[in-house]
Design a protein that fits this description.
With 333 residues, the chain is α/β, with parallel strands linked by helices. It has eleven helices and ten strands. The model has no long low-confidence stretch (mean pLDDT 95). Keywords: Oxidoreductase.
């Protein structure tokens, strides 16, 4: 496992992040506590050091399990958790990015995790109703109090992230060092605005769902693929997504790899800023996913995959590209 510094910080993180959304059996199919311990041990033995969870994952079960199994080795891991999602649907102040919810959510997460600080605290989603100034100041207060070391943001428009970090720069607050977004061959939307923004600002990009909700895992392309639990039925997957999954399977077969490894390796090939979040319900799945770190996709394989799953950048990107020779004439480079 190789390591990178996360965004503009000096924080060393492994190139594959362990996603703990499956840790716990509350609210559906997940991993029991003992299997979570084995996955955490496997991840650590492979050199992984970065874990992602949230205050709402498995109704808090994810954080509680992590707190149990991180006991005695907490400082060896980069622990990140998130807030925004409601902790109590009957309480209007138990959700959102405002100061009150941040404080209550953070204290809840720290108690469950059995620690007095988190390395990375993520805003889980943009809250249109809370001023960015309030969120950024409240996050900075948490950093100054020593409860949080660094902050990041997930699932938000590029302009929101840019404005938030501009505010932080102007006022001496802690800036976002990371961006968390969905990214896979099936969902390349971030290539329009979010990924270029992150690269320009020097942010790390934690990519969730690199397997496209399991569609790229091989479940839907292997004859025995649906023997285990699956989030989707064959009929609910579009023909376009089936075509992409088949292309991933073909490349995997030619390389002697698995579809999951190819799909994860593709996200890593797109930008040095991208750090895939790999989740699993068993040590077998996690071991397979972790092997993606050693897989190198050649230019031909990359071209085949991207030809099957093109992304339209849309306006203004396509318009600028099309008109640049005319607009800039001899100055066009």
């Amino acid at each position: 496992m190789r390591y990178r510094t996360l965004g503009p910080s000096g924080l060393r993180v492994s190139e594959l992040i362990l996603g703990a959304m499956t840790f716990g059996e509350q609210g559906g199919v997940g991993a029991p506590a003992e299997e979570c311990r084995r996955m955490l041990d496997l991840y650590s033995e492979a050199g992984g050091n970065t874990i992602d969870t949230a205050v709402n994952y498995r109704d808090g079960g994810s954080e509680e399990i992590l707190g149990q199994w991180l006991h005695g080795r907490r400082d060896s891991f980069v622990v990140g958790t998130k807030y925004t999602v409601s902790r109590d649907r009957g309480d209007p102040n138990a959700a959102g990015n405002h100061r009150k919810n941040l404080r209550a959510s953070l204290d809840t997460s720290l108690r469950r995790l059995g620690t007095d600080y988190v390395d990375l605290y993520w805003v889980h989603m943009w809250d249109r109703r809370t001023p960015l100034e309030e969120t950024m100041r409240a996050l900075d207060d948490a950093v100054r109090a020593g409860k949080v070391l660094h902050v990041g943001i997930s699932d938000s428009p590029a302009w929101v992230v840019s404005r938030a970090n501009t505010l932080a720069e102007w006022r001496g607050w802690s800036p976002f060092i990371g961006l968390q977004v969905p990214y896979s061959l099936l969902q390349r939307d971030i290539e329009r605005e979010l990924l270029p923004m992150a690269e320009s600002l020097g942010l790390g990009v934690a990519a969730w769902s690199p397997l496209g909700g399991g569609v790229l895992s091989g479940k839907y392309t292997r004859p025995d693929g649906l023997d285990g639990p699956a989030r989707l039925s064959q009929d609910s997957i579009s023909e376009r997504d089936h075509a992409v999954a088949r292309a991933v399977q073909e490349v995997a077969d030619e390389m002697g790899a698995t579809p999951s490894q190819v799909a994860i390796a593709w996200t890593m090939s797109r930008s040095p800023a991208v750090l895939p979040i790999v989740g699993a319900r068993s040590t077998g799945q996690l071991r397979d996913n972790l092997a993606a770190a050693e897989l190198e996709l050649g230019s031909e394989a990359l071209a085949r995959l991207e030809e099957t799953a093109p992304v339209e950048l849309g306006f203004p990107h396509d318009f600028i590209a099309q008109t640049s020779p005319w607009v800039f004439a001899a100055a066009n480079v």
